[in-house]
């Protein structure tokens, strides 16, 4: 599981309305976060890429399992020492997990 | 208690904000360092602050350093949140001026107790500040604080080109009150005078106890004529509202008041300005007391 349901419950005190609001806000911000990452990657701008991944990581800190959070954290660090091909491969893996997290989050929030 | 949350991530701001409300705090939100600094310039700015470390523009440590450079003596308790881990990050955050540090993703129960500890420190600091700035007997400003407010009022008057007046007020024959009724009654009389001052002054006027029975009153945006009106209201209220002491006896009091309006062309500094009002008070005393004299 990529989502950390216990964490979401702790943050929201298990309030259904708050879970829904947080999930909706995250899902509305997510496309822009992903676009920023992929644009920086295409432009080869390491600093911008690291910042864009950091933004995603910050938001994930409210939902994701510790291992997935660390994985995205590693992507943020490695963005600065870019081996573009390897990084892109790892990003695609992380993105797949992100899709899983979205499904899990929607289920939990009843969206 | 208000808490300023500075984080560029909207989801984290919302999560923190909801948690703080649940714990009885009032969240104030800023998306970056620049917005945070503006919020801290407001009247009644929050003194408990939660910063994200990495933000676009000014980083958390840079924001800490900027806040710690303030010269107005205000205390801010800063809790830094960061995805960084390890001793180096803690040292960097604390050296930048943070009071506490929490690594993300954090357990909200830990955040709750850290915030509670921070709020206790902010309250303690506010209590100390209150003790350091108020006169213990009358609860009006003490001399140190009224001097500081005096300096600020001159600066404000100069900046806004607005009028500014002061009153120096002294209770007539106060030694006789102490000698006749005792010091406890004298203390009641001082409190009574301050109470009358607070009732008769405007919300933005400031009262400070300058010495034993001498008070300084700052009257912003007030010229000499308006100051006279305020002074006369105070003088007559004190004359006609005697202090009632414990056994029901009444102590009649009168006051003498010197007034001066700030004059940029004559008052080269705060002392010169104060001396003009003080001399006017001296003249009021010399010419029979229970009166108001304006400085030349």
TrEMBL record, chain A:
Chain ranges of the HPt domain: 15-111
Pfam families according to UniProt: Hpt
Alphabetized PROSITE patterns for the sequence: HPT
Keyword tags: Phosphoprotein, Two-component regulatory system
Modified residues (Phosphohistidine): 54
InterPro entries in UniProt: HPT_dom_sf (IPR036641), Sig_transdc_His_kin_Hpt_dom (IPR008207)
GO MF entry, a single one: protein kinase activity
SMART domains reported in the protein's UniProt record: HPT
GO BP, sorted A to Z: phosphorelay signal transduction system
Keyword Phosphoprotein among record annotations: yes
Protein name: HPt (Histidine-containing phosphotransfer) domain-containing protein
Organism name: Zhongshania antarctica
Organism taxonomic ancestry: Bacteria, Pseudomonadati, Pseudomonadota, Gammaproteobacteria, Cellvibrionales
UniProtKB/TrEMBL annotation, chain B:
Keywords: Phosphoprotein
Cofactor(s) needed by this chain: Mg(2+)
4-aspartylphosphate PTM sites in chain numbering: 52
A molecular-function term among this protein's GO annotations: diguanylate cyclase activity
Catalytic activity: 2 GTP = 3',3'-c-di-GMP + 2 diphosphate
Pfam families, alphabetized: GGDEF (PF00990), Response_reg (PF00072)
Entry-linked PANTHER family: DIGUANYLATE CYCLASE DGCM-RELATED, REGULATORY COMPONENTS OF SENSORY TRANSDUCTION SYSTEM
Protein name: diguanylate cyclase
Species whose genome carries this gene: Zhongshania antarctica
């Amino acid at each position: 599981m990529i989502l950390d349901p216990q964490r979401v419950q702790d943050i929201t005190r298990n309030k259904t309305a708050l879970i829904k609001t947080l999930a909706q806000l995250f899902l509305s911000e997510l496309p822009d976060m992903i676009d920023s990452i992929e644009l920086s990657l295409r432009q080869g701008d390491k600093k911008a890429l690291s910042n864009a991944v950091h933004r995603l990581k910050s938001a994930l800190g409210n939902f994701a399992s510790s291992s997935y959070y660390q994985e995205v954290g590693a992507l943020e660090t490695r963005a600065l020492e870019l081996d573009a091909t390897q990084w892109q491969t790892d990003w695609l893996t992380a993105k797949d997990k992100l899709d899983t997290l979205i499904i899990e989050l929607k289920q939990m929030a009843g969206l | 208690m208000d808490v300023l949350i500075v984080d560029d991530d909207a989801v984290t701001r919302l999560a923190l904000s909801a948690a703080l409300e649940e714990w009885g705090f009032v969240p104030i939100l800023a998306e970056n360092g620049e917005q945070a600094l503006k919020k801290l310039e407001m009247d009644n700015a929050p003194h408990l602050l939660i910063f994200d470390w990495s933000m676009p523009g000014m980083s958390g440590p840079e924001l800490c350093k900027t806040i710690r450079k303030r010269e107005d003596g205000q205390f801010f308790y800063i809790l830094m949140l960061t995805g960084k881990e390890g001793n180096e990050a803690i040292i960097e955050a604390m050296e930048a001026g943070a009071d506490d540090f929490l690594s993300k993703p954090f357990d909200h129960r830990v955040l709750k107790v850290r915030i509670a500890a921070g709020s206790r420190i902010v309250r303690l600091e506010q209590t100390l500040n209150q003790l350091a700035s108020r006169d213990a007997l009358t609860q009006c400003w003490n001399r140190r604080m009224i001097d500081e407010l005096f300096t600020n009022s001159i600066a404000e008057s100069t900046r806004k080109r607005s009028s500014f007046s002061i009153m120096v007020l002294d209770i007539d024959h106060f030694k006789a009150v102490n000698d006749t009724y005792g010091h406890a009654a004298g203390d009641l009389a001082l409190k009574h005078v301050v109470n009358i001052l607070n009732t008769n002054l405007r919300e933005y006027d400031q009262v400070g106890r300058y010495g034993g029975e001498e008070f300084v009153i700052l009257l912003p945006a007030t010229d000499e004529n308006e100051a006279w009106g305020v002074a006369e209201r105070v003088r007559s209220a004190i004359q006609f509202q005697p202090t009632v002491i414990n056994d029901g006896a009444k102590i009649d009091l009168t006051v003498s008041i010197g007034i001066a309006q700030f004059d940029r062309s004559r008052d080269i500094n705060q002392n010169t300005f104060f001396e003009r009002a003080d001399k006017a008070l001296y003249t009021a005393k010399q010419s029979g007391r229970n009166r108001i004299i304006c400085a030349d």
